[in-house]
Recover the amino acids of this structure.
């Protein structure tokens, strides 16, 4: 594999990573319905270290506004409760044995508008990251002193990919905006 192919491959990986990161960010933007991703990343003090909640409990969403957290170790329930309260979700868990219920209130119009702004900002941050990646990739290719034809071919490929990913980001932002507005 020559250097230009390696640079282009790294560029494609960067594009994919940026898009996947945006998708992960959007998963955490709650649209009025319960989803395990809302809590699964909360870090819980367990056996001397902090671990993600998903490693110490089962998480289900039996109703659109309810998250059930089933601790695998009854001794961990109070630690899980503390972690949820400290997690900044703004919801108070209720405990029933080794089961924790987390009821999510309906979103107000103000909160929906705020979440839509956050989604748009995250989309714009991803667009900026992709433009920066494009710039860095082109600078790296310049250092290779490629032929004019090869340089034009690679720039065209880069620009086409940036356009494709940019359109996908716009689509994801519109989808998230619709989801946040309609539920």
């Amino acid at each position: 594999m020559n250097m230009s192919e390696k640079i282009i491959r790294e560029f494609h990986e960067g594009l994919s990573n940026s898009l996947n990161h945006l998708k992960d960010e959007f998963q955490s933007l709650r649209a009025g319905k319960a989803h395990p991703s809302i809590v699964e990343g909360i870090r819980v003090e367990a056996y001397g270290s902090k671990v993600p909640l998903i490693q110490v409990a089962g998480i289900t969403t039996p109703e659109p506004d309810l998250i059930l957290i089933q601790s695998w170790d009854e001794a961990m329930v109070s630690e899980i409760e503390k972690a949820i309260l400290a997690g900044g979700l703004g919801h108070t868990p209720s405990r029933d044995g080794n089961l924790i219920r987390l009821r999510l209130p309906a979103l107000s119009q103000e909160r929906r508008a705020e979440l839509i702004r956050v989604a748009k900002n995250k989309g714009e941050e991803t667009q900026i990251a992709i433009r920066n990646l494009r710039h860095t990739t082109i600078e790296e290719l310049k250092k290779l002193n490629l032929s004019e034809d090869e340089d034009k071919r690679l720039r065209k490929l880069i620009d086409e990919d940036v356009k494709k990913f940019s359109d996908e980001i716009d689509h994801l932002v519109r989808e998230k905006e619709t989801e946040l507005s309609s539920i």
Remarks:
- The two ends are 49 Å apart (CA to CA).
- The first strand starts at residue 43 and ends at 46.
- The chain has a mean pLDDT of 88.
